[in-house]
Amino acid sequence: MGNQNVFIIAEAGINHNGDLQLARKLVDAAVEAGADAVKFQTFKAEEVVTPGAERAQYQKDNMPEKDESQLEMIKRLELSYAQFRELYAYCRQKGIIFLSSPFDQESIDFLAELGVPYFKIPSGEITNYPFLRRIAGKKRPVILSTGMATLGEVEGALQVLREAGAKDITLLHCTTNYPALPEEVNLRAMLTMKQAFALPVGYSDHTMGIAVPIAAAALGAEVIEKHLTLDRNLPGPDHRSSLEPGEFKEMVAAIRQVEKSLGDGIKRPAPGELAVMPAARRSLVATRDIAAGEIITESCLTAKRPGTGIPPNFWDVVVGRQARRDIASGSILSWDMI
Length: 338
Hints:
By secondary structure, the chain is α/β, with parallel strands linked by helices. It has helices at about 20-35, 45-50, 55-60, 70-75, 80-95, 105-115, 130-135, 150-165, 190-195, 210-220, 245-260, 270-275, 275-280, 315-320, and strands at about 5-15, 35-40, 95-100, 120, 140-145, 170-175, 200-205, 225, 285, 300-305.
């Protein structure tokens, strides 16, 4: 993404339950939590799924009371283009980046016209080459989720995107299950993609809690995406695996701490350590009186705190030298003494 800081996306997704006012409240929650962007999902339900398609198992698990097809479910969760224009304007008013994942060709065109700064490609579309070409043709930076994909499928998608004109691409590691089990996350795969493709990487999280996205940030994720809901008890397929506003804010704060702690990788004393060094380190100290002109031997020396004199790593340099003047027992040695 080209940012020094982790780019944090609050995935509002379809957690608005088809209600524009609820969508606005999700924007407010994302702003309050300190997210960089809030992301929705833009689609025409009939263009995405066939009438007879069943819901995914996690959708059935999260909404066992509903006996409906996938089409019926997502139709209830669809917002109109006019409503997305209102949300885009509301995000600008609130000072947060509006993003939305398209799920059909027409929605790609709409979001490009609306002015999204990035195209976020959902994991399920990674093998949908016509879809990828349409997005690449918009010449916007691309964030590609890679849930359910093999490394070869990621490579194939990248080739299609690049051949169609995409240049700025970030890969998001993802485990597409709601919720995802920590033992199935395999965060090291994010690093594998970074090494294999020499591209910025991030992580789209579907686990419960905030530990895994924080770990991803510590491993070098440049983008973190996490679902946000106003209430996990609301009806809908994604609420139960989402963070509530207070939790999301806690995650953002923790990630900001992590990114500060990563540093530049140069091993050197931190500024705060410099004041501690004299008290914690040791100096060469005379174990007995040493007369001027006397050869200093090992039996003359020990190492004690504070570290204000000759450091003990110069032990072998000092042994065998002459004392320049009388040195009293217990004295901390300095270079002008020898």
